[in-house]
Design goal:
By secondary structure, the chain is α/β, with parallel strands linked by helices. 50% of the residues lie in helices and 12% in strands.
């Protein structure tokens, strides 16, 4: 399902937020008493409602949108809640003020005529890019609750050359404040209805079977989609931030046995179910326990062999 201009609309909202924050006096209260804040919320709320209405007309849900549009929808839905919009605006103002303070230290930065700051729902923590003399800084929405020292580390890492605090920043994303924001961004919504359907296989139907056989129906259905392109690199991926499992479209073929698709989906559901183990600052997804659980799949050997043969044939 395609709904045009969702990503563009989300970028427009980001610009409106930046303009609103820059228009406020340093000590001016950010609240819905301010007509500009109220108007911004109304625009976001109406935009979210329109997306949901269009999806319903297609007998679909926003989760059926392409990945970039769905992520934008999640962010807009998040900001449509007054609590999170105010939290976002406060965080934006604090990041912006801190960035201006850091910029004064010219030994760290190139003299950019313009700098733009945005806080968004994205699949990376932060980054900066230069374009036409402007430095764009983008920060993950998960950091809106971050304490002052973490915010400063992020901006220094983004604006300057010091990268030695990245490990501390990565540690923060495993804290409850960060995770609470990410959970709010993944708020409950209807499972995707259309994008799980391939030419031969419906991932939603396979999920029901796998969930009952191997997980005692304990797993909530994630967003299940087929990849846009066929590839030999990875048969499946799980993205925790959007709770999305993507299965390689090359497997949606009549010559591919059902148990192969079931196995790949089972593997990715294990990632959702077990999460990532951490030890000495390192992260492990395919642990010995994970492998033991993976071996419980009844036709694992046959599925592994089919994938090996597929790679050899197509290469």
């Amino acid at each position: 399902m395609q709904i045009t201009n969702i990503v563009k609309f989300s970028h427009q909202i980001g610009l409106q937020i930046e303009d609103l924050v820059n228009s406020l006096n340093g000590n001016q209260l950010i609240s819905f008493i301010n007509p500009a804040v109220l108007e911004l919320h109304t625009i976001i709320h109406n935009g979210v409602s329109k997306i949901e209405q269009i999806a319903e007309k297609h007998h679909a849900s926003p989760a059926d949108l392409p990945n970039s549009s769905f992520r934008s929808y999640q962010w807009l839905k998040f900001l449509s809640q007054k609590k999170w919009l105010l939290t976002h605006l406060h965080a934006h103002r604090e990041f912006s003020s801190m960035m201006k303070s850091i910029i004064k230290n010219r030994s760290m930065l190139a003299p950019y005529p313009k700098m733009r700051l945005s806080i968004r729902h994205m699949n990376y923590l932060f980054f900066s890019r230069q374009q036409n003399g402007t430095l764009f800084v983008e920060i993950n929405e998960g950091f809106i609750h971050a304490p002052e020292e973490i915010r400063k580390m992020i901006l220094v890492a983004t604006l300057g050359k010091k990268k030695n605090n990245n490990a501390i920043i990565r540690d923060y994303i495993r804290t409850e404040p960060y995770r609470s924001v990410m959970q709010a961004l993944q708020q409950p919504c209807q499972p995707n209805r259309l994008s799980s359907r391939g030419t031969c296989y419906d991932l939603a139907e396979i999920f029901i079977v796998i969930n009952e056989l191997y997980f005692r129906n304990q797993i909530k259905q994630p967003r299940l989609v087929w990849s846009v392109r066929r590839s030999l690199r990875r048969m499946g991926t799980y993205e925790p931030d959007s709770d999305t499992i993507t299965i390689n479209r090359i497997l949606d073929h009549r010559d591919v046995p059902a148990f192969v698709v079931e196995y790949i989906l089972y593997h990715e559901l294990l990632h959702k179910h077990l999460g990532i183990r951490e030890s000495n600052g390192r992260r492990f997804a395919h642990t010995s326990y994970f492998r033991a659980e993976e071996n419980k799949f009844k036709k694992k050997k046959q599925a592994d062999q089919f994938i090996k043969d597929l790679n050899r044939i197509l290469n």
